[in-house]
Amino acid sequence: MILLNEDTKCLVQGITGKQGSFHTEQMLQYDSNIVAGVTPGKGGQDFQGVPIFDSIEATKENTNVNASIIFVPAPFAKDAAFESIKHLDLVVIITEHIPVHDSMEIMAYAKDKDVTVIGPNTPGIISPKVGKMGIMPTHIFSEGNVGVISRSGTLTYEVASQLTRAGIGQSTCIGIGGDPVIGTDFPKILQKFEDDPGTDQIVMIGEIGGNAEEKAADYINANISKPVVSYIAGLTAPPGKRMGHAGAIIEGNVGIAESKMKALEKAGVNVAKKPSDIVELIKNI
Amino acid sequence: MKFFEHDAKKLFKRNGISILEGHVAYSPEEAMEIATDMGCPVALKSQVLVGGRGKGGGIKFADDPDEAFEVAGKLLDMEIKGEKVKHILIEEKANIQEEFFLTVSIDRSSKKPIIMVSIEGGVEIEQLAITNPEKIVKYHINPLEEFLPYEAREIARKMGVDSSLISSLGGIIWKLYNVFDKYDAQVAEINPLILTEDGLIAADAKLEIENDSLFRHKDLTEVNSFKTKEFAFVKLDGDIAVIGNGAGLTLTGMDMIKLNGGNPATFLDIGGGASENTIKKALNLVLNHAPIKVVFLNVLGGITRADDVAKGVIRALDSSKRKINIVIRLTGINEEEGQKILEEAGIPFEISMEKAAKKAVEIRNSLVE
User: Fold this and answer.
1) Of A105, A181, A253, which is closest to B108 when you measure between CB atoms?
2) How many beta-carbon contacts under 8 Å exist across A and B?
3) CATH class held by domain A136-283
4) Domain range spanning residue B283?
């Protein structure tokens, strides 16, 4: 497994909010290691036995936390992200609709501090063996040796549930986020799966918009020896229209599904025509 | 949120960038009046939000007020790429010595703002990137640092302009970046920036504010009557409506329809955590859209609960006047409850997305044209 493992001790920013409290409960039910929550002004209280602190610095004085999951609403998410980047090693930003200018600042700061940011606008990370830092339904995942990376939430669920039903478990599944500017792109995750002894095969799910898949193809060609199976959504999407995700838009000649599929095939990746082909391709490796 | 040229120019001017003086006309009579007041010749520019206005014949000139009347009439009768021209901007016709290109946008892969400028103005940047890529100067901004005027002058120098222009051109590049930064823009662009005897002037202006930042710019959104939407909806030209939860899954639903030989009529992403009412609204939208023959509803609930979806479906079908074939794929959170609700109402459903897509196309093909 990668990123989220036995050593991950996570705090929840925005634990007392509607989203934060609901998903903290879900994460606890899945036995995830949630050590604290942060809500300024509510320090000293607790949520279902999880202690709440006023700041991350206060949390660090009392626990050995090293990761954060952010549910803070978009207008305040930049502040929350900077606070966690300053103090921790891994930050998952679930929040949707963060202004892209804020995201650019967050990612520049994370790069300076050498901190891994996943998201924003992501379902998060799940390592079925140890827990989740995310909002995904857990019953469709199972423990195993396939690593999954995706730009899309529900499509990850689709693929994971098909894998699970076919008896193929997952080491870690990561949604990198559907926004135009995200913290961690495909190559960094691909490399982590390459280096992870618990991962034997990789599933990469892309979609129209930008050139992240083309860049991933180059990276796979040069650096990845484990078999990669891929699926790209949006073959039938028209140009110039934002297809749900802010990042899913064909602009000029950039972002077309065919170009992504071609680049991946050229890099030796098995490209599935439909999600169910992923299961077959994984089985046949 | 995109701005019309004349609105963008107002904001540019407010931020110290010189623009051509102009006025907006909604009728040929107004155009004639403005042309008389301003003095001819004038340029008449249709105000649309789509690109490619020049090529589409949306910019014309007039040598006297009568011609302005006639030309305005034609422009106001036009559609450019499907967008009706409702008003035109009338400006003095400038005496152009040189044309430059300046744009600031977001570079997704480097996660930074990027300034792109060229000594070759007036052409599309995509075109220039193919024909003369060496004539484009690119400069990334560190989002954590202030962009300083000397950097802008350096960009101007690298464009290859005459030394006498470096200060004024650098000044405009600096101001354009500040517009981009201040208004949380997706893109801020001047093409062309023209050199006249009066100096450097923005002859065109493009500004798009990034939608997720609009809460910080309420003063501007009121001007533009922008509405936030409940779901992501794109109309397509087929006859099978595709509805799904989540962008990736909805896109895949479309692809599966096509793979089976069908044609999607919509991309309709109900998003995460859609309520019963959202489902009903989404279905109503497609049920009342005449070209649609079959509806393919594809839900794998994560935050969205399958029982809410089932209830919404029943409410929409009950209230619909039109009888329509609907293929439902329903799994995920609370799937047993959701499936039971559909069963009790006698509505069939599928578990597999791919089977459901195939079935939707088969039903479409079985209908008599």
Assistant:
1) A181
2) 165
3) alpha beta
4) 232-362
